[in-house]
Amino acid sequence: MNSPAQVDLGAVPVRDAARGSAAPLSRVMIGVGFSLLTLSYLVNAMDRQVFPPLLPNIRQEYGFSLEQGGLLATNFTLGMAIAGLPAGYLLDRFRRKTVLLVSIVIYSLGTMATPLATGFADMTVYRVVSGFGEGMQSAAIFAAVGAFFAHRRGLAFGAIGVGYSLGVFFSPLIGVRLMSAHDTWHSPFYLFGAAGLLIAAVSLFLVRPALTEATADKAASTRTYEYMPASPYNRNTLALAVHSVVSGVAVYGFIGLYPTYLISSLHYSSEQAALAMSFLGFGGMLAILGGWLGDHANQRNLLIMSLLACSAVSVGVYQTHAGVGTQCALAFLMGVFGLGFLYPNTNSAFQRAVRPEQIGRASGLFVTSYYGTAAFSGLLFAALVDSLGWRQAGLLQVTLLPLVGVLALTFVRTSGFNNAVRR
């Protein structure tokens, strides 16, 4: 990753010149700031993923149908999609740190409001509000980290992805345990929301603008990008957007209803379903490996391989009656390829497909395309289950759909990326 001396703080926009004149950060402050960003994304993941393992209890209390539950499990991504493009626009013009802190407060308050819902309508609103904050934060974090660690963008995104996966790992275990201890599913939402507010307060003082506001490094400033399209919406980003839409629908359809599938179809207990769900996050911790590979291998081919792997794993999940141990292993593999390889490399590929000064918009486009249709992935999956059963629904949405993403990726040309070697 870049050392402090490699960061060209003078490369910020004119309106940010005063902020860019700050002294270079020490390695300690880079480590502290990066750790807080990662921790904030961990809490983001916990807020997102605490809902699916508690969904059977939430449905029982409110009398929600499977379709309503499936929509609630994934509709927070609608808020993320709505936030994506506006956040990308703002990030190219205003302080990323400000966007970041505001976003954490928004999704934390949305999480804490969820148990206050009186029915489907207002719970939907709280989930979408929470997702809006999470989408803003995702765009802000990846724009900031992608700029500061430009030469090791994939590895840095992988490290952030490890934080996310830790949240996915711990959230079901903590959530179910708190629900059992307090005899209510409300407790985890209050705890995780409060944790987000605390991190926002600490980050206000310890995450320095020199980390979040960099836009380019010295090496990049000596290069020309005339070989790249002038618009951030080009062949590569549009092909990546199609792949991103497909990945979001497949991965979030799986995540949103996986515990419900284990409990209702395979008759697992809530604790067993939470354990399998946590292995999804455990697998996602290999995001640091996935990100490193994205820095050193052909990123398009890596994404194609990851999609094919997700399809293969889903066959074992839905087409067999696997025991707890096997399901945990399959969930681990889905985490490796769905969270550890697909997510960070899709994100970093978007930023590599545009000129350096456009990474804010690239980050926003990723958030919108990945999470936009994912908002309805749970509803779609639930409707397919009601019509066809779990096996056929899994075959269509999680096994065959990723092949459309593979087709879209064949149109990506990595020779047009901003990290391509030019002769």
Q: What is the CA-atom radius of gyration, in angstroms?
A: 20 Å
Order of helices and strands: HHHHHHHHHHHHHHHHHHHH
Give the end-to-end Cα distance, rounded to a whole number of Å: 24 Å
- Indicate the percent of residues in helices: over 70%
Tally of DSSP β-strands: 0
- Proportion of strand residues: under 5%
Describe the largest sheet.
none
Number of helices: 20
Which class do the helix and strand fractions yield?
Answer: mainly alpha
What is the overall silhouette? Answer: globular
**Mean pLDDT across every amino acid position:** 85
Low-confidence stretches: 1-22
What does this entry look like structurally?
Helix 3 (51-62) runs parallel beside helix 8 and helix 7 (120-148) packs antiparallel against helix 17 (359-372). The protein has helices at 17-20, 27-49, 51-62, 66-74, 76-91, 96-113, 120-148, 153-182, 186-206, 209-212, 218-221, 235-264, 270-284, 287-296, 299-319, 324-352, 359-372, 377-388, 390-400, 402-409. 76% of the residues lie in helices and 0% in strands. The model is unreliable at 1-22 (pLDDT under 50). The two termini are 24 Å apart.
Give me a quick take on this structure.
With about 425 residues, the protein is mainly α. Helix content is about 75%, strand content about 0%.
